[in-house]
C-alpha cells in the first residue's frame, strides 16, 4: 500500500512506459526482454523518481533490484557529477548480491555516461583504488570493504545524494548493523534513502526510524510470505543420521525432474560433504560458501547461470543475491534455524512468475525449527513419501561406525602394547637380558679376553681374579700431547652385568692403594725471565696504622648513623688536610 494519496493512481500501472522513466532507460529495459513491471517495481519507481525516501518490503525474487536501479539511473543522468566523489551508494550484504546489482546497473545504464565501481572483498585493492582515483558516479559495495577503503583515505562519501540499502534483514543476521550505522553517519544527512528488506525485525524498524526521513512504506506482499507459484513439499525421515539425509536427498534429486537446483545447508562444512556425496553418486554438483575464495565462487556461479552445472550446494550466505531466473528446484537439506531464511531459500525458484518446487528434509530433531517455519509462512507443505528401507540405511551407518570403532580399538591396543615397554630397563624387556649368559667354547690353549672370561666365570659361579688396568703416566703440565697419545684410544670394553659390579673392591681399599702407586710429581722449574726476590729486596714492613675511635666502633653502628659525631672530637676530618686542620678552620 502507499502512504501518499497522490500516488494511489499509479497502483494499477504495470507497464514500464507508464512509470515515468526516460527513453534511454526504457530502451535498456526493453533490450533485456522485460515490458511489464512487478508490483514492487510499479509502486517504488514513481516514488523514487519523485525524490522521496522509500521503505520497500517485498519477498525475494520480486524485482527489488530494478525497483531502485532504474530510478537511480534517471536521477543521476539528470544531475551534475562531482569530481572524484560518488553521488550514489548501494550497500549489499554479500559479494554475490553486490555483483548482481553491478550487473543490473551495467545492463540498464547502457548508453548513459555513468561510471560505477564494485567494492567487495576477496579481490585486490589495486584495481578498485584505480577506479576510485579516476572518479565514479555509483559505488556498489559490501559494508566491510567500503569501510576499508574509507580508512585508507581513498574514499569520501560527503557527496552521496542517493543511498540504497538492499536486503537489510540479512545484514542484521550477518552482524553488519553497526557498520551500516557508521556508513549512514559518514554520508550527508540530506539525501534520498531507498531501504529494501524481505522481513522487518524490530532492529530494522529502529534503523529506519533513525535514518529515513518520512519514508513511503511500500508492501508488495505481507512480510515473510512465499510466492504462490512455488510448490512446497516436506520429506520426513525417521533418523537424523547424516547418511540417511544424504540418501533421501539423492532419492529426491533422482526422482524429480530437476533441470537445475540449489541445495541449502545450515553449516559451511556440511555444504562440502553434501556436494562430495552427490558427485560420488554420479550427480553434477559443486559447493559455494563463504570460506571459498572469490574467484572460485564467481566461477561456480557463472557455470550454474550458464547451465553447465546442474546442482549448486550453498550456505545461507548464497541464499541472498543469487539471481538465476530459471531455477526449477530448491532442496533444503537442513531445516533453517531462522524461519526467515526459509523464505529467502525457496525464493531462488519461481522467479519472474515462473513455477518452482521446494523440498525440505525433516528429521525428528527438526520439530522446533519446522514449527517456526510453518507459523511464519502460514502454509502446510505437501508431504512426500520415499520408497527407502531406512533400516538398511541405519545398519549401514552402524556398520561404518563399528568399523571405525574397531580400527580405533586396534590402534589403542597397539598403543597400549607399545606403552608397556616404556620406562622399563632393557634387562626386563629384551630377550637377551632374560636368558643366562652363554660362553662360546674356545680351543685349548686359547685364552678368552679378560672381560669375557670374567663374565663367563661369574656366570658359572666362580670367583675370577680381577685384573688391574695399568695406569697411564702423568704428563708434566705445559708439555704438548704427542700424536700417538692423541690418536690412541682405549678399546671399547663391554660393561659387566650389575651382579658383577657388586664384587668390586670397596672404595676405601681402592683409595688406600692408589697413592702408593702414584709417581711423585716433578718440581716446577722457576721461570727464566723472573729471578727470585732476594732478602735485600724484600718489601719493607709497613708501620701499623693508628686506628681512630670511629674505626674501633662496630661497623653496623657506623652504617646506621654515618653523620653522628661526638661533640669533643671536632667534627669530621676535612678531606685533603689529613688529621691537621689549618688555623682558620679550627674551632674557637
Strand content: 5-15%
CATH architecture of the domain at 5-219: 3-Layer(aba) Sandwich
Q: Enter the CATH topology name of the domain at 5-219.
A: Rossmann fold
Biggest sheet strand order reads 3-4-2-5-6-1-7
Q: What integer value in Å does the Rg equal? A: 47 Å
The class by helix and strand makeup works out as alpha/beta
Which percent range fits the helix content? Answer: 25-40%
What's the total helix number?
A: 23
Ends distance? 115 Å
Oligomeric description of these chains: single chain
Overall 3D form: extended
CATH superfamily membership of the domain at 5-219, which one?
Answer: P-loop containing nucleotide triphosphate hydrolases
Question: Which CATH class of the domain at 5-219 applies here?
Answer: Alpha Beta
What's the count of strands? 14
Structure in words:
Helix content is 40%, strand content 11%. The chain has 588 residues and is an alpha/beta fold. Among the domains are: 5-219, P-loop containing nucleotide triphosphate hydrolases (Rossmann fold); 230-395, Rossmann fold. The strands form 2 sheets. It has a 7-stranded parallel beta sheet, sandwiched between helices. Strand 3 (116-119), helix 5 (125-134) and strand 4 form a beta-alpha-beta unit. Helix 3 crosses helix 4 and helix 13 packs across helix 14 (367-377). The longest helix is centred in the last third of the chain and has 31 residues, at 390-420. Mean pLDDT is 75; it is low at 1-13, 419-439, 490-494, 496-502 and 508-512.
